[in-house]
Amino acid sequence: MAKTSSVEKNNRRRKLAARYAPKRKALKAIIMDKNQPMEERFRAQLQLAALPRNSAPSRIRNRCEVTGRPRAYYRKLKMSRIALRDLGNNGLIPGLVKSSW
Predict the structure, then answer these.
(1) What is the pTM assigned to this prediction?
(2) How many CB atoms sit inside 10 A of residue 81's CB?
(3) DSSP letter string over 42-66?
(4) What are the DSSP E strand ranges found in 4-99?
(5) Does 100 have pLDDT greater than 80?
(6) What domains appear along the chain, each with residue ranges and CATH number?
(7) What letter does residue 15 receive in the DSSP assignment?
């Protein structure tokens, strides 16, 4: 199991990213619009920089929903390879068969 604080910190980041997503999108549209005056684009850039850092989607870490492990994460299953193996061996994942040769 991962530290509870790490998992909770990541959950807070997800909530912040969801809350600020529309505002970030609007500011980025202004920044990327070449027809806007330079002062307006610069003001939008400063406003974007003033938003909380943890509201950026790139700061969210993919973590296993079973154990909280940050590495060896399968996006499709939302779990780590170790949790996948344990659940597969116990027969809790339909269609997953333990390979042997």
Answers:
(1) 0.81
(2) 14
(3) HHHHHHHHHS-GGGSGGG-----TT
(4) 73-74, 79-80
(5) no
(6) 1-61 (1.10.287.1480), 64-101 (no CATH)
(7) H
